[in-house]
Specification:
The chain is of the alpha+beta class. The chain is built from six helices and 17 strands. It is globular, with a radius of gyration of 21 Å. One of its GO terms (cellular component) is nucleoplasm.
């Protein structure tokens, strides 16, 4: 597992649907006031607003803990204990320069290193296309967290979707509605960020929960969502814009296959600003001990968001268990180097993610599939020319 990510919870094989998840919301699960008061949070927020005046505060759900039911138990299989927090508190605690000290102090004072941290619960999607590609986005420079890095579609479930206002009360948020918001929010984020119609998306399956250690252990619920569109159709929707088009500058498709229980990322196609401009300092960086020979693709492709340029060499990568999260064993993700991947991106190994998934196009399953590919590489394809 990548040291920047820790696995908090692994759902049973195949993932959990909405009806198998339960939420308990209580003030007891809110963060503790900081030692000496919360003035440092206010100061950090004001400093952020000066640098990024487009930021705004909003209430968020805080993950306190999660418990899986014993195997074979009737009823919901997962209990999430949630409190309330805010985006302001997130930037003032998890992203504060004192975050490491806050974790140490939380362990000392409360026996919980996350006690003083906002820890807003995020959501992320392993979004699979009909032609077996996973979808990644390059985050824009205007976002507060991980600007310029590669990530999956995602965001936050919103308390305000259930109870309008800046300060919702725990009693105003019934647990079953919070669960519904958790699952529906990941679909909404896909619709807003990738500009896909809701009817093209399957119901989400919860794969697990991962902590992003670069933001002091902030947790994200990771889902699997199948799209009925091909990667080309997804690209067309993405390039036409959407409600949150400003949050990303390019889209990357990573082809998946399953061989011997391993996810194989065969090659990527990328469109959008900053993904494959010739001469970029952060272009493909292949280590000397890279395990497989590169498979170059011929042809040209245009980038509608930023001029045009030739397709860069793409690489075949086989990933074993524990390496899926950041693809960091490969040295590159198509034309996006390993260092550009946002920590916590998916966060799960293929074996732990949806090992028993019955969806034939999942691309993440470690369970036997009727027609699992047996060849060592995918069929060669060329990236077709695009229109400017």
């Amino acid at each position: 597992m990548d040291p920047e990510v820790s696995l908090l919870l692994q759902c049973p094989p195949g993932g959990l649907p909405e009806e198998q998840v339960q939420v308990e919301l209580s003030p007891a699960y809110d963060r503790r006031p900081l030692p000496g008061g919360d003035n440092a949070i206010s100061a950090a927020w004001e400093s952020r607003l000066q640098a990024q005046p487009w930021l705004f505060d909003a209430p968020k759900f805080r993950l306190h803990s999660a418990t899986l039911a014993p195997i074979g138990s009737p009823g919901p299989q997962l209990l999430l204990r949630l409190g309330l927090t805010s985006y302001r508190d997130f930037l003032g605690t998890n992203w504060a320069s004192s975050a490491a000290w806050l974790r140490q102090q939380g362990a000392t004072d409360w026996g919980d290193k996350q006690a003083y941290l906002a820890d807003p619960l995020g959501v992320g999607a392993a979004l699979a296309t009909a032609d077996n590609f996973l979808v990644f986005l390059r985050r824009s420079q205007r976002v507060a967290e991980a600007p310029g890095l590669v990530d999956v579609p995602g965001g936050h479930p919103e308390p305000q979707a259930l109870c309008p206002g800046d300060s919702p009360l725990h009693t105003d948020l019934p647990g079953e509605l919070v669960v519904h918001e958790l699952f529906s929010s990941v679909l909404q984020e896909i619709c807003d960020e990738v500009n896909l119609p809701l009817l093209t998306l399957s119901q989400p399956l919860l794969l697990g929960i991962a902590r992003n250690e670069t933001s002091a252990g902030r947790a994200s619920a990771e889902f699997y969502v199948q799209c009925s569109l091909t990667s080309e159709q997804v690209r067309e929707h993405y390039m036409s814009g959407g409600p949150e088009a400003h949050e990303s500058t390019g889209i990357i498709f990573v082809e998946t296959q399953v061989r011997g229980g391993e996810v194989c990322l065969a090659w990527t196609r990328s469109w959008g600003w900053g993904l494959r401009r010739p001469g970029d300092a952060w272009g493909p960086q292949i280590p000397q001990n890279f395990p497989l020979e590169p498979q170059g693709l011929t042809g040209d492709a245009l980038s509608p968001k930023e001029g045009q340029g030739p397709v860069q060499p793409l690489y075949h990568v086989s990933l074993g268990a524990g390496q899926y999260r950041g693809l960091r064993s490969s040295g590159t993700v198509g034309t996006a180097p390993v260092g550009d991947l946002r920590a916590g991106c998916l966060g799960l190994s293929p074996h732990r993610a949806c090992g028993g998934c019955r969806r034939q196009k999942c691309g993440l399953s470690s369970a036997p599939r009727p027609k699992a590919p047996s060849s060592s590489t995918t069929g060669s394809r060329e990236v077709p020319p695009e229109s400017p």
